[in-house]
Structure formats: C-alpha cells, structure tokens
Specification:
It is built from 9 helices and 6 strands; from the N terminus they run H-H-E-E-E-E-H-H-H-H-H-E-E-H-H. It has 484 residues and is an alpha+beta fold. The longest helix has 69 residues.
Length: 484
C-alpha cells in the first residue's frame, strides 16, 4: 500500500517570505544556549535533502537492494548465453573396444523457444549394432541444426518470462527506492522544521525576557519611591521567573530538536553531524515546497506517476506474466528439430555424404488439473492487484484533496494570525505608554505583554505548520526531491 503522510487538522497559510529578521536576539545570560552568527553554518532545506540523498546510510542501503534487483536481470539474461558441452565414452574392457567424443556448442534464441547448435563427433573402434549411431568416418562428423517449439513455449517460456519478470522487478525496486527516499526526506525535513520552529520560538521568548529584565530596575526604583506598591515588585518578580522558565523550556526543545536533526544531516558517507555543529538555522532556509495551486486536477499527472503506483503496476505486470505462463502450460508440447550432418574422411562406405534429419516430438498430459489451477490462481492474483491499483489511486487523490483543503483554510488562518499579532503588539505599546504616564497598572501591562507573546508565538507556529502541510502534500505526491 502507499505510504501516506499525516494531514494536519488545520494547515496554516503560506509564508510568503521566511525571513529571520524578527528572530531572537543575543542571549543575556551566559549559561543560555549559544545562538551567535559565529556558530558553524547550518544547512538550508535544499542542502539537507542533498546530504540525505548522497550520504545517508538508510538510503544507501536502499540503493544496495536496487542493485541486487539489477543483478537478477543479468542472471535472467544469462539464460540465453551460448553453452559448450562435451560427451565422451570409452569401452575399457570387453569384446568391443569402441570410443567416441562429441562436442556441441548451442546458442538459445528467444524466437519460438529456439536453439541453434553445431557439433563435432568422432568415434573409433568396434561398436555393437545397438550403438551404431556412434560410428563416424576417421575424421569425424560435423553437424548443425535448429530446434523450435511449435505449441507450448512457442510464444513464451520460463526463460523469456523470467527475463521480463527481472525487468519488472527492477522497476518495482526502483519505485520502492523512491518511496523509501521520500519517507526518509520527509522525516529529515520534518526534524528540520521542528528545529527551525523551536529556534524561532526561543528568540521570541528571549526578547521578552530581555525586556522584562531591563524593566526590573525601573520597577524597583518606583517601588522604593512609593510610586508603586511592594506587591507590584513581587508580582513582577513572579512574572520574570515564569518567563525565564519559558525560556529554559524553549531552550530544551531547541536542543532536543537539534539532536534529532543531527541524525539526518550528513556531510560524508559515514559521519553523522554533531549537534554542536548544527548551530542555528540560516536566515533564509530556502523552503522549496511551496504549493502554488490548490486545484486537485493540477496534480493528476503526479498521482499517476507516483512511485507507489509504479511499483504496484510492476507487480501487476509480473502477475500477468505468471498468468500467461500458466496458460502456456496447458498447451500440448510439439517440438521440431532440423539437422544437417556430414561425415568426413575414410571408413564405412554408407557413412559418406550428407544427412538431413527432421525430428518432430509431441506430448500432452492427460490430466490438466494442476495447470488449470495455476492459471486460475494467477488470474485471481491479477484481479487482486487491479483492484489494489484503483484503491491506491483513490487514496492518493483523497489525501491530496485533504491537503489542498487544509492549505486553503491555512492561508486564511495565517492572515488572521498576523493581524492578531499586529493588534496585540499595538495594544502592548499603548499600554506601555499609559503605564509610563502613570494612568495604567503593572498587572494590565503584564497581561498585554503576555497576550503579545502568545500572538507572536502563534504567528511563528502558523508559518511553520503551513510549511509542514506543504511538506505533507509533496510527500503524498512523492515529490520531495526539489530541483537544484
């Protein structure tokens, strides 16, 4: 069955410009996570995907499995290689003292299950009458001929079917390789988005903690002067501790996301990147998975070319080949052999001259139950895969339709989230001005700051969640290898 990727309940709308201009500023406390520009440069999404394709051991293992399927194709093709056989007999004792040797070279051909052959046979001594076919002149006998199937195996046989099966198996392996790569890239880019989102959230919270710390001395001075009650300072200390706790939790999520991403970021064939080398996301992560269209019909070609569909179609062709082979077994066997031979040299007079031989063999089994049963089994297997192909295509169309619907709603939600963020920031600024003018209290200012924080975090989450939905759409379509 196809690999289907989770559809978010609410996909949030397209971020037109993934700028880091509103990202976190430098940390105040020395023990906090280092997020300076001097940290080792981290990859963009494109570089992450390229590293997975070139170096990740999971994908390289998949490539090795595909190479095995390619080797099976060579094995099947070798069934049509030329062969040399040697047949020798010597009477070591007894009344007769004859000996003979025969060498044959044969070349199978695909047409009519044919075989071209040429042979040389030489015999000497005395043979009994029932072994007279061994007699040749003193320079031996040369012959050449052809064998053909006229009924069973004429159109196809096990060798030709196996050659076709090997080609379909290779196609299926390549398609499954694409599916496995698609899964791996999806997991890697999902980890990247977790890392990117946690970094953005950490920056927002750090900005608020910095502002809170800067304001602390001013609140303390106003309390000492009697302008504010002592409870205001206590409340502000409680607020600062809550925000510092949020910062520590955000740092933890960022470090854990970095650890997860390090597994996917590969810079060589064997080395996994260290979390310390990940640094922080670049200002432009180079998001390559934007979905410009929400029209389902625009994705019909991609659904039809999905590697899971291709793999299932390859399995279906293999089943049809098995069905044709089963039908072939029901036919009678009728084989024709044409041969021309000539003895060379001196010896028995009747052996001089050319021989032309036509042979015809016929056989048919009386009972056909086993062959009929195999044909019936193969036909049922074909029907099963045909229905599975319809199911798979319908499932892909359903998943794409759900993703597109979510994207449409997500774009509307993002617009509202950004408006909410702008209004919350405006309210915070106005409340700050009123507090400084002495016409507002600290508690209301803290609430405004908290609301602005939540609005900013929701805006960040909206952008990243939308990228996750776009990623899920492209993963459903198995289009996670962006062009350079």
């Amino acid at each position: 069955m196809a690999y289907r990727f989770p559809i978010a309940a609410l996909a949030l709308a397209l971020a037109a410009n993934l700028s880091m201009a509103d990202g976190p500023k430098e940390a105040v406390e020395p023990q906090s996570v280092a997020l300076t520009q001097e940290t080792i440069s981290a990859p963009t999404v494109q570089q992450l995907v390229e590293g997975i394709v070139r170096h990740h051991p999971e994908f390289r293992a998949t490539l090795a499995r595909t190479d095995q399927a390619a080797g099976l194709q060579q094995v099947a093709d070798a069934a049509f290689d030329a062969r040399i056989t040697q047949d020798t007999g010597v009477r070591a004792s007894g009344y007769y003292d004859g000996s003979y040797a025969k060498q044959t070279i044969s070349q199978p051909i695909a047409a009519m299950n044919g075989e071209l052959f040429g042979s040389y046979r030489i015999a000497g001594g005395q043979f009994p009458v029932y072994e007279a076919e061994f007699d040749t002149l003193d320079l031996g006998e040369a012959s050449m001929g052809i064998r053909l199937s006229l009924l069973q195996n004429r159109v196809l046989d096990e060798r030709r079917i196996e050659l076709q099966q090997a080609a379909w198996k290779l196609l299926a392996a390549q398609s499954k390789q694409d599916v496995e790569l698609n899964k791996l890239v999806y997991a890697g880019v999902s980890s990247y988005l977790n890392w990117y989102q946690s970094f953005r959230r950490l920056g927002v919270i750090r900005d608020l903690v910095r502002i809170t710390q800067e304001r602390f001395s001013g609140i303390e001075a106003r309390v000492d002067s009697g302008d504010l009650a002592q409870i205001s300072l206590t409340e502000f200390q409680s607020t600062l501790l809550r925000r510092q706790l949020l910062e520590r939790e955000a740092e933890q999520r960022f470090e854990l996301a970095k650890q997860q991403l390090a597994y996917f970021w590969r810079v060589s064939n064997s080395a996994m990147a260290t979390p310390q080398a990940m640094g922080q996301p670049p200002q432009d992560i180079g998001w390559p998975y934007k979905a410009p269209s929400i029209d389902l019909s625009a994705f019909d070609d991609q659904i039809a070319q999905h590697p899971s569909v291709s793999a299932l179609n390859a399995q279906l062709e293999q089943a049809r080949n098995q069905q044709r082979l089963a039908r072939n077994e029901v036919l009678p066997q009728l084989d024709l052999e044409l041969k021309v031979a000539r003895d060379i040299g001196q010896g028995i007079e009747p052996l001089t001259g050319n021989d032309s031989i036509i042979g015809l063999s016929f056989s048919v089994p009386i009972g056909q139950r086993a062959a009929r049963a195999r044909e019936s089994i193969a036909a049922a297997g074909v029907r099963e895969l045909e229905f599975e192909s319809v199911v798979l295509t319908d499932q892909l169309r359903r998943d794409v339709a759900l993703s597109l619907e979510a994207l449409d709603y997500g774009r509307r939600i993002l617009a509202i989230s950004r408006e909410q963020e702008a209004v919350a920031e405006q309210l915070q600024r106005q409340e700050q001005e009123r507090f400084e003018a002495g016409v507002s209290d600290l508690f209301l200012l803290i609430n405004r700051e908290t609301a602005a924080l939540q609005a900013h975090l929701k805006s960040v989450d909206a952008e990243v969640d939308l990228m996750r939905q776009e990623l899920a759409l492209q993963a459903t379509l198995a289009q996670l290898l962006p062009s350079a």
